[in-house]
Amino acid sequence: MVTARKKYTAKTAEEKQKEIEELSEKMTNQLSSYFVSEEALKEHLAFMSIFYNYSLRNMTLIQSQFMGAQAVGSFKFWQDKGVSVKRGEKGIQLFVPTPVTYFNRDGEWIQMQYANSKEKMQINNGMLETQKKLFFKIGHVFEYTQTDAREKGMPVSEIFGQYYQDGVIDNEGEMLVALQKVSEVSDLKYYQYLRVN
Question: CA 150, CA 182: separation in Å to the nearest integer?
Fold first, then answer.
């Protein structure tokens, strides 16, 4: 038996605008309570603090490969949380700082890994001069939605849970427009509050 495929029809500009308005209203109602509640903000900040703070260069790299990524961690990070990266997920590349220690052997700088046992003892006793150089290697991280964290019930903040309620980052453009509208409403309310007080 052959079943007919459902034909996809593109949404009109009016339908898209209506979706944005509905999303904006929903977010205004939901997020306004979070921004009023210090506890919700504290909970969210505590949750986000478990993730590493990446450099601006690495944050730019992450966003260029996975737009909208919020909570990222290495394979080991997720493993330590009892979470697995989903099969087939591609890691997000970034630069990992890797300091390398050198020691001075008769005027020549040699990597510490090539020191013999006598030299290692002299280095530990401060008898041989050492210096560190910083190099970078390519590492990989994975975003929350690339893992089974949701399925395994990893505790997240209520705010984060709302953003990822479908388990994916979807309709990001509409989400950003809606966030802008929420921000405008919040700014207006704050301005009115200042005028009254």
Answer: 26
